[in-house]
Design brief:
With about 120 residues, this protein is mainly beta. It is about 10% helix and about 45% strand. Keywords: Plasmid.
Length: about 120
């Protein structure tokens, strides 16, 4: 069975503290979706990224307005810190995006700059 991985290019809005749970360390980050390969997030503005264990330590060092690439397989409905409904993902991989990567994701399949569509095809 092949599990499809999706990616989202996101700007950090808010970072929570690392918390200890019975499953290990956990850190929640609220991000703005800039570009994504996941069709369900085409209309989403903000999502919650949940990072576990070693990724939680990495997520705790994020600063606001930094741009990261998050890889994930699925999403769920959750609530943010103010109990507003929000989509949530569990991060499988986290990378800081370079300027070149950001520019690359903003170019569509015809080779044109496309800042208006969030979906990467």
């Amino acid at each position: 069975m092949i599990i499809k991985e999706f990616l989202s290019l996101c700007r950090v809005v808010s970072v929570g503290h690392v918390r200890q749970t019975k499953f290990g360390e956990r850190c929640e980050v609220i991000v703005d979706v800039m570009k994504t390969t996941y069709p369900a997030f085409e209309k989403a503005h903000r999502i919650k990224v949940i990072a576990w264990k070693d990724k939680a330590k990495q997520a705790a060092t994020f600063h606001n307005n930094q741009v990261y690439v998050f890889f994930f397989t699925n999403h769920k409905r959750d609530v943010d810190w103010l109990n507003n409904p929000i989509q949530a993902i569990t991060a499988l991989k986290i990378f800081k995006a370079t300027k070149r990567e950001i520019d690359m994701y903003y170019i569509n399949s015809q080779g044109q700059y496309d800042p208006f569509s969030k979906l990467i095809v």
